[in-house]
Amino acid sequence: MSARIIDGKKIAAGIREEVREQILRLHEETGRVPGLAAVLVGEDPASATYVRTKTRACQEVGIASRGITPPGDIAQSELLQIIHELNLDPAIHGILVQLPLPKHLHERVVLEAVDTRKDVDGFTFANVGRLVEGQPLFVPCTPAGILELLDREGVAIKGKHAVVVGRSEIVGKPVAFLLLHRHATVTICHSRTSDLTAETRRADILVAAVGRPRLITGDMIKPGAVVVDVGINRVDGKLVGDVDFESAVQVASAITPVPGGVGPMTVAMLLRNTLRALEQSIRDS
Ligand code: NAD
Prior knowledge:
By secondary structure, this protein is of the alpha/beta class.
Protein backbone atom coordinates (compact mmCIF):
# COMPACT_ATOMS: atom_id res chain seq x y z
CA MET A 1 0.00 0.00 0.00
CA SER A 2 1.19 3.50 -0.68
CA ALA A 3 -0.41 6.42 1.11
CA ARG A 4 -2.21 9.31 -0.55
CA ILE A 5 0.02 12.37 -0.36
CA ILE A 6 -1.84 15.32 1.13
CA ASP A 7 -0.97 18.34 -0.99
CA GLY A 8 -0.82 21.13 1.57
CA LYS A 9 0.62 23.54 -0.94
CA LYS A 10 -2.39 23.18 -3.23
CA ILE A 11 -4.93 23.31 -0.40
CA ALA A 12 -3.21 26.40 1.06
CA ALA A 13 -3.24 28.09 -2.37
CA GLY A 14 -7.00 27.49 -2.53
CA ILE A 15 -7.49 29.07 0.91
CA ARG A 16 -5.35 32.06 -0.05
CA GLU A 17 -7.52 32.58 -3.11
CA GLU A 18 -10.67 32.40 -0.96
CA VAL A 19 -9.18 34.97 1.44
CA ARG A 20 -8.19 37.23 -1.48
CA GLU A 21 -11.74 37.18 -2.87
CA GLN A 22 -13.26 37.86 0.56
CA ILE A 23 -10.91 40.81 1.11
CA LEU A 24 -11.83 42.22 -2.30
CA ARG A 25 -15.54 41.96 -1.48
CA LEU A 26 -15.10 43.49 1.96
CA HIS A 27 -13.14 46.36 0.46
CA GLU A 28 -15.91 47.01 -2.08
CA GLU A 29 -18.53 47.01 0.67
CA THR A 30 -16.70 48.94 3.41
CA GLY A 31 -13.60 50.56 1.88
CA ARG A 32 -11.50 48.78 4.51
CA VAL A 33 -8.56 46.41 4.09
CA PRO A 34 -7.00 44.22 6.79
CA GLY A 35 -3.68 45.39 8.20
CA LEU A 36 -1.05 43.12 9.75
CA ALA A 37 1.95 44.31 11.75
CA ALA A 38 4.87 41.89 11.94
CA VAL A 39 7.29 42.70 14.75
CA LEU A 40 10.72 41.18 14.17
CA VAL A 41 13.21 41.95 16.93
CA GLY A 42 16.87 41.63 15.94
CA GLU A 43 18.39 39.97 12.92
CA ASP A 44 17.91 36.21 13.29
CA PRO A 45 18.06 35.04 9.64
CA ALA A 46 15.53 32.20 10.03
CA SER A 47 13.02 34.55 11.70
CA ALA A 48 13.62 37.16 9.00
CA THR A 49 12.83 34.55 6.33
CA TYR A 50 9.59 33.53 8.08
CA VAL A 51 8.48 37.15 8.36
CA ARG A 52 9.33 37.81 4.70
CA THR A 53 7.25 34.80 3.64
CA LYS A 54 4.32 36.02 5.71
CA THR A 55 4.45 39.63 4.52
CA ARG A 56 4.76 38.57 0.88
CA ALA A 57 1.72 36.31 1.29
CA CYS A 58 -0.16 39.27 2.79
CA GLN A 59 0.58 41.43 -0.22
CA GLU A 60 -0.69 38.73 -2.59
CA VAL A 61 -4.12 38.62 -0.96
CA GLY A 62 -4.54 42.37 -0.33
CA ILE A 63 -3.57 42.58 3.34
CA ALA A 64 -1.58 45.74 4.12
CA SER A 65 1.45 44.47 5.98
CA ARG A 66 3.79 46.57 8.05
CA GLY A 67 7.20 45.27 9.09
CA ILE A 68 8.52 46.61 12.37
CA THR A 69 12.15 45.71 12.97
CA PRO A 70 13.51 47.03 16.26
CA PRO A 71 17.16 46.25 17.04
CA GLY A 72 18.04 43.08 18.98
CA ASP A 73 19.04 45.09 22.07
CA ILE A 74 15.76 47.03 22.37
CA ALA A 75 14.63 47.56 25.98
CA GLN A 76 11.53 45.63 26.95
CA SER A 77 9.70 48.85 27.88
CA GLU A 78 10.33 50.25 24.39
CA LEU A 79 9.05 47.06 22.74
CA LEU A 80 5.94 47.15 24.92
CA GLN A 81 5.38 50.76 23.83
CA ILE A 82 5.58 49.74 20.15
CA ILE A 83 2.98 47.02 20.74
CA HIS A 84 0.79 49.44 22.68
CA GLU A 85 0.80 51.85 19.74
CA LEU A 86 -0.09 49.03 17.33
CA ASN A 87 -2.94 48.03 19.65
CA LEU A 88 -4.37 51.54 19.25
CA ASP A 89 -3.71 51.85 15.50
CA PRO A 90 -7.03 51.57 13.60
CA ALA A 91 -5.24 50.47 10.39
CA ILE A 92 -3.76 47.43 12.15
CA HIS A 93 -6.04 44.45 12.81
CA GLY A 94 -3.46 41.74 13.44
CA ILE A 95 -0.17 41.86 15.33
CA LEU A 96 2.37 39.09 15.23
CA VAL A 97 5.52 39.04 17.31
CA GLN A 98 8.00 36.70 15.68
CA LEU A 99 9.48 34.20 18.15
CA PRO A 100 11.96 33.48 19.56
CA LEU A 101 12.74 36.86 21.11
CA PRO A 102 16.26 37.76 22.25
CA LYS A 103 17.04 36.33 25.70
CA HIS A 104 16.78 39.61 27.65
CA LEU A 105 13.11 40.00 26.70
CA HIS A 106 10.40 38.22 28.65
CA GLU A 107 8.43 36.38 25.96
CA ARG A 108 5.25 35.95 27.98
CA VAL A 109 5.13 39.60 29.05
CA VAL A 110 5.62 40.74 25.46
CA LEU A 111 2.96 38.38 24.07
CA GLU A 112 0.48 39.43 26.75
CA ALA A 113 0.88 43.05 25.63
CA VAL A 114 -0.87 42.25 22.34
CA ASP A 115 -4.56 43.15 22.34
CA THR A 116 -6.51 39.85 22.38
CA ARG A 117 -8.59 41.10 19.44
CA LYS A 118 -5.44 41.60 17.35
CA ASP A 119 -3.69 38.41 18.53
CA VAL A 120 -3.88 36.61 15.17
CA ASP A 121 -1.30 34.03 16.35
CA GLY A 122 -3.61 33.07 19.21
CA PHE A 123 -0.78 33.10 21.76
CA THR A 124 -2.21 35.34 24.52
CA PHE A 125 -3.48 33.65 27.67
CA ALA A 126 -6.99 34.85 26.87
CA ASN A 127 -6.98 33.21 23.46
CA VAL A 128 -5.39 30.01 24.81
CA GLY A 129 -8.12 29.89 27.46
CA ARG A 130 -10.85 30.39 24.88
CA LEU A 131 -9.41 27.56 22.78
CA VAL A 132 -9.28 25.19 25.77
CA GLU A 133 -12.86 26.13 26.62
CA GLY A 134 -13.95 25.35 23.06
CA GLN A 135 -14.86 28.94 22.19
CA PRO A 136 -11.84 30.12 20.22
CA LEU A 137 -11.34 33.63 18.96
CA PHE A 138 -8.01 33.10 17.19
CA VAL A 139 -6.55 29.61 16.90
CA PRO A 140 -2.75 29.35 16.52
CA CYS A 141 -2.01 29.08 12.82
CA THR A 142 -0.24 25.71 12.59
CA PRO A 143 -2.83 23.76 14.61
CA ALA A 144 -5.64 25.55 12.72
CA GLY A 145 -3.94 24.56 9.46
CA ILE A 146 -3.72 20.91 10.52
CA LEU A 147 -7.46 20.72 11.23
CA GLU A 148 -8.21 22.49 7.96
CA LEU A 149 -6.07 19.96 6.07
CA LEU A 150 -7.87 17.04 7.71
CA ASP A 151 -11.28 18.57 6.95
CA ARG A 152 -10.50 19.40 3.35
CA GLU A 153 -9.15 15.87 2.83
CA GLY A 154 -12.38 14.46 4.23
CA VAL A 155 -10.66 12.74 7.18
CA ALA A 156 -13.24 11.72 9.82
CA ILE A 157 -12.17 12.84 13.31
CA LYS A 158 -15.14 11.99 15.55
CA GLY A 159 -14.56 8.82 17.56
CA LYS A 160 -11.07 8.30 16.14
CA HIS A 161 -7.98 7.83 18.23
CA ALA A 162 -5.65 10.77 17.64
CA VAL A 163 -2.11 10.65 18.96
CA VAL A 164 -0.14 13.90 19.11
CA VAL A 165 3.60 13.58 19.59
CA GLY A 166 4.88 16.82 21.14
CA ARG A 167 3.29 19.05 23.78
CA SER A 168 4.49 22.52 22.83
CA GLU A 169 2.30 25.56 23.43
CA ILE A 170 2.24 26.49 19.74
CA VAL A 171 1.54 23.09 18.15
CA GLY A 172 1.14 19.99 20.35
CA LYS A 173 -1.23 21.26 23.04
CA PRO A 174 -3.52 23.38 20.83
CA VAL A 175 -3.86 20.70 18.15
CA ALA A 176 -4.71 18.16 20.86
CA PHE A 177 -7.52 20.41 22.13
CA LEU A 178 -8.83 21.04 18.62
CA LEU A 179 -8.99 17.29 17.99
CA LEU A 180 -10.63 16.74 21.37
CA HIS A 181 -13.30 19.34 20.60
CA ARG A 182 -13.99 17.44 17.40
CA HIS A 183 -14.64 14.33 19.49
CA ALA A 184 -11.43 12.43 18.87
CA THR A 185 -9.98 10.40 21.74
CA VAL A 186 -6.64 12.12 22.19
CA THR A 187 -3.31 10.90 23.54
CA ILE A 188 -0.48 13.41 23.95
CA CYS A 189 3.07 12.00 23.89
CA HIS A 190 6.27 13.81 24.78
CA SER A 191 9.94 13.32 25.55
CA ARG A 192 9.20 11.37 28.76
CA THR A 193 6.63 9.00 27.22
CA SER A 194 7.93 5.57 28.18
CA ASP A 195 6.86 3.56 25.13
CA LEU A 196 6.28 5.91 22.23
CA THR A 197 5.79 3.13 19.65
CA ALA A 198 3.03 1.51 21.72
CA GLU A 199 1.19 4.84 21.72
CA THR A 200 1.72 5.83 18.10
CA ARG A 201 0.68 2.38 16.85
CA ARG A 202 -2.78 3.00 18.30
CA ALA A 203 -3.31 6.19 16.30
CA ASP A 204 -5.92 6.52 13.57
CA ILE A 205 -4.66 10.08 13.21
CA LEU A 206 -1.01 10.66 14.10
CA VAL A 207 0.35 14.20 14.44
CA ALA A 208 4.12 14.52 14.82
CA ALA A 209 5.30 17.89 16.17
CA VAL A 210 8.61 17.04 17.77
CA GLY A 211 11.52 18.64 15.96
CA ARG A 212 13.47 15.34 15.67
CA PRO A 213 14.24 14.35 12.08
CA ARG A 214 12.52 11.09 11.00
CA LEU A 215 11.70 10.07 14.59
CA ILE A 216 8.47 8.34 13.53
CA THR A 217 9.20 5.35 11.33
CA GLY A 218 6.81 3.12 9.41
CA ASP A 219 6.83 0.38 12.08
CA MET A 220 5.46 2.93 14.59
CA ILE A 221 2.38 3.61 12.47
CA LYS A 222 -0.89 1.68 12.46
CA PRO A 223 -1.70 0.45 8.95
CA GLY A 224 -4.16 2.86 7.33
CA ALA A 225 -3.50 5.76 9.72
CA VAL A 226 -3.54 9.38 8.58
CA VAL A 227 -0.15 10.93 9.35
CA VAL A 228 0.42 14.67 9.75
CA ASP A 229 4.07 15.64 9.86
CA VAL A 230 4.59 19.09 11.38
CA GLY A 231 8.36 18.85 11.76
CA ILE A 232 10.70 21.10 9.86
CA ASN A 233 14.28 19.92 10.29
CA ARG A 234 17.29 20.73 8.19
CA VAL A 235 19.49 17.70 7.55
CA ASP A 236 22.45 18.00 5.18
CA GLY A 237 20.92 21.13 3.68
CA LYS A 238 17.60 19.36 3.02
CA LEU A 239 14.27 19.84 4.78
CA VAL A 240 12.91 16.71 6.44
CA GLY A 241 10.00 16.12 8.77
CA ASP A 242 9.62 14.31 12.07
CA VAL A 243 8.31 11.31 10.12
CA ASP A 244 10.47 8.99 8.07
CA PHE A 245 8.50 9.55 4.88
CA GLU A 246 9.86 6.58 2.88
CA SER A 247 8.80 3.95 5.42
CA ALA A 248 5.66 5.77 6.61
CA VAL A 249 4.21 6.14 3.12
CA GLN A 250 4.11 2.32 2.84
CA VAL A 251 1.90 1.98 5.92
CA ALA A 252 -0.29 5.09 6.21
CA SER A 253 -3.44 5.73 4.18
CA ALA A 254 -2.63 9.44 3.83
CA ILE A 255 0.39 11.52 4.78
CA THR A 256 1.56 15.13 4.59
CA PRO A 257 4.96 15.65 2.95
CA VAL A 258 7.74 17.95 4.17
CA PRO A 259 8.00 20.43 2.61
CA GLY A 260 4.59 21.10 1.06
CA GLY A 261 2.32 19.75 3.80
CA VAL A 262 1.58 21.64 7.00
CA GLY A 263 4.00 24.54 6.36
CA PRO A 264 2.00 26.36 3.65
CA MET A 265 -1.17 25.95 5.73
CA THR A 266 0.35 27.93 8.60
CA VAL A 267 0.74 31.02 6.42
CA ALA A 268 -2.74 30.59 4.90
CA MET A 269 -4.27 30.49 8.40
CA LEU A 270 -2.45 33.67 9.39
CA LEU A 271 -4.03 35.44 6.42
CA ARG A 272 -7.45 34.10 7.32
CA ASN A 273 -7.08 35.09 10.97
CA THR A 274 -6.10 38.63 9.92
CA LEU A 275 -9.17 38.92 7.69
CA ARG A 276 -11.33 37.67 10.57
CA ALA A 277 -9.77 40.26 12.88
CA LEU A 278 -10.91 43.03 10.52
CA GLU A 279 -14.38 41.49 10.17
CA GLN A 280 -14.68 41.32 13.95
CA SER A 281 -13.54 44.93 14.37
CA ILE A 282 -16.18 46.05 11.85
CA ARG A 283 -18.83 44.13 13.79
CA ASP A 284 -17.64 45.68 17.07
CA SER A 285 -17.65 49.28 15.75
P1 NAD B 1 9.13 22.22 20.67
O1 NAD B 1 10.60 21.98 20.68
O2 NAD B 1 8.57 23.40 21.37
O3 NAD B 1 8.40 20.93 21.28
C1 NAD B 1 8.81 19.64 20.92
C2 NAD B 1 8.00 18.63 21.70
O4 NAD B 1 8.43 17.35 21.32
C3 NAD B 1 8.17 18.75 23.21
O5 NAD B 1 6.89 18.79 23.79
C4 NAD B 1 8.90 17.47 23.60
O6 NAD B 1 8.41 16.93 24.82
C5 NAD B 1 8.58 16.54 22.47
N1 NAD B 1 9.68 15.59 22.23
C6 NAD B 1 10.99 15.87 22.08
N2 NAD B 1 11.69 14.74 21.87
C7 NAD B 1 10.79 13.73 21.88
C8 NAD B 1 10.91 12.33 21.72
N3 NAD B 1 12.07 11.74 21.47
N4 NAD B 1 9.77 11.60 21.79
C9 NAD B 1 8.58 12.17 22.01
N5 NAD B 1 8.43 13.50 22.16
C10 NAD B 1 9.52 14.28 22.10
O7 NAD B 1 8.72 22.18 19.14
P2 NAD B 1 7.46 22.82 18.34
O8 NAD B 1 7.57 24.30 18.34
O9 NAD B 1 6.19 22.17 18.73
O10 NAD B 1 7.85 22.33 16.87
C11 NAD B 1 7.93 20.96 16.55
C12 NAD B 1 8.39 20.81 15.11
O11 NAD B 1 7.41 21.41 14.27
C13 NAD B 1 9.71 21.52 14.81
O12 NAD B 1 10.40 20.76 13.83
C14 NAD B 1 9.27 22.83 14.22
O13 NAD B 1 10.22 23.37 13.33
C15 NAD B 1 8.03 22.41 13.48
N6 NAD B 1 7.04 23.47 13.28
C16 NAD B 1 6.51 23.57 12.05
C17 NAD B 1 5.55 24.52 11.81
C18 NAD B 1 4.93 24.58 10.45
O14 NAD B 1 4.39 25.57 10.07
N7 NAD B 1 4.99 23.50 9.69
C19 NAD B 1 5.15 25.40 12.81
C20 NAD B 1 5.69 25.26 14.08
C21 NAD B 1 6.65 24.27 14.31
